[in-house]
Design a protein that fits this description.
The complex is a heterodimer of chains A (556) and B (104). Chain A is α+β, with helices and mostly antiparallel strands. Helix content of chain A is 39%, strand content 17%. The chains are: A alpha+beta (556), B alpha+beta (104).
Chain lengths: 556, 104
Amino acid sequence: MYQYNDFDTGFVRARNAQFRDQVARRIDGSLTEDEFKPLRLMNGLYLQLHAYMLRVAIPYGTLDSAKMRQLAMIADRWDKGYGHFTTRQNVQYNWPSLVDVPDMLDALQEVGMHAIQTSGNTIRNVTSDHFAGAAANEIEDPRPIAELLRQWSTDHPEFQFLGRKFKIAVGASTNDRAVLKAHDLAVRVVRNAAGDVGYEIVIGGGLGRTPMIGQVIVGFLPRADLLPYVEAVLSVYNLLGRRDNKYKARIKITLHENGMHKFRSLVEERFALIKPEFSGRDQVLLMRFREDFASPKFTQAPLGDYEAAYEKDPVFASWVDTNLAPHKNPDYAIATISLKAHGQTPGDASSDQMRLMADVASEFSHDELRISHEQNVILPHVHKSYLPAVHARLKQVGLATANIGLISDIIACPGMDYCALATARSIPVAQQIATRFDALKLEHDIGPLKIKISGCINACGHHHVGHIGILGLDRAGVENYQITLGGDGTETTTIGTRTGPGFSYAEIIPAIERLVLGYLDLRQDKHETFIEAYRRLGAAPFKAVLYPEGRVKNAA
Amino acid sequence: MSSTFLPKVVTANDLTCGDVVYLSADGQWVRRHKDAELLLDAAHAAMRLNFAEAQQALVVGAYLADAVKGDGGPSPVHFREVFRAHGPSNLFHGKQSEQKNVSV
């Protein structure tokens, strides 16, 4: 894992000292709110519905136990004893006091963390595959590239005042677990016909009010060209992108309005100009980062206890079947810890849960944890012989829910319970769907199904790429929920299609129940998943169960 | 004054803790919606908003929100203001946990 060097530590300390001074000047009246707001946003501090919110970056979702323990300490000391893990692999504190934030930032700095560029019109936290370095099917660990991009983009003077925010994701697998094509820019590690490793660059993806799937701007970029090429893309976007209308300011609109042909030729022109300025120092750094992210030294141990526990304990077996993914070492597993216990807030973890996850990671997962964009926590390297002990420990604090990829493993943004931009609540909708299907005891029978809920059109809850997407809106002063179907956030990225009129808060849970029970009737057999059935049958039969005769009018 | 003016309260967030606050008739920032001053005409509402916006050392983002006369004081109209006056629905945090009778 990358550890801060003296330069990083000095930089973050200086920024924190600067912000401490800015907070003091806001409180003593030297700064107005208009002057202070951009400064606090540069440091990840929002003002939400009920309180301030501090968004802390977890670069590419990777943590060690020391960082997780510090997040727990901060939650206890300056917040309400919990944190909320987000779809950008960040963690948010919902209740900090303005006067405490400088101390919170200092506490983060002690473990090599900060909140810089988690807001504002800058390059945001670089996200990645939460199975990076552990998955069986990746070309290489994508995190050294993510770290290179993170260092390059942090405080980059040219890109501190972009037309709009800019989100970068990195992947290196044939499976897309980072929603690459919904990013402003995605880097995919690929191999060309000659067997050389390089990068495919995809730009112009995004969800929000105008969902678009990213397009390939270059199919294969040699390693040494990555930073100058990405810098060229940002430079072109920075100058060409619109600043007259914030809803038209993302790169997806720039690309849409100018066309790929024009955009690409401007990027190539800019690339030719700046490439000579890159001396190769970035490649030296990259080699160092690859050492930082070297595979752990895998242990060898007999698997007898694991196999015996699997045979004997059906609860453990269910967790194994549902929450584990194949590891590149066949004696190991990738274990996903669900932050979606039925009825709980998706993505929330208490400080006790954080500390237990830190303990389990240090004892059983080579001291590594990951945050997934699906708001769960991953133990990336668990020897299978440890799994019964890991499961038993997780169970003690309510973290052993066996529901990964199932109907209750819902992404939900904070919605109008916290967010100042939200137009409706999302958390209680997620809670009620989870508890309803748990009560029906149908979850495992229904099988893989991704429900994603956003409380406004900005789509932090990724509703467009949910098999079932739910978008909460304010319709004439009442919460109203639109359903989209057929979305897909994997390598076969698809934007879901709206079914029709929305549903009120009271109607949305029964509507989802009709839809899912309808799927059980429509599927060929129990092996045909919801999304497979939808693709085979199209929207019509699903709409028919969603809007039984006579209900369409009422649902409007 | 226009007879169609919907009554308002002035609301904002406290500068240091971020908590939702309301402007009372005696010019104080109070924590309970029902202690807010109900503003019944547009001119008076604009004047009170002006007063609020000048209080940068105390509050952030003052605005006028629709309200109606209720038992013991004004009640919010829009569901967003109901949540602001009460707290989040997933956890017993915010005003609902700190005050008795936050009923809005």
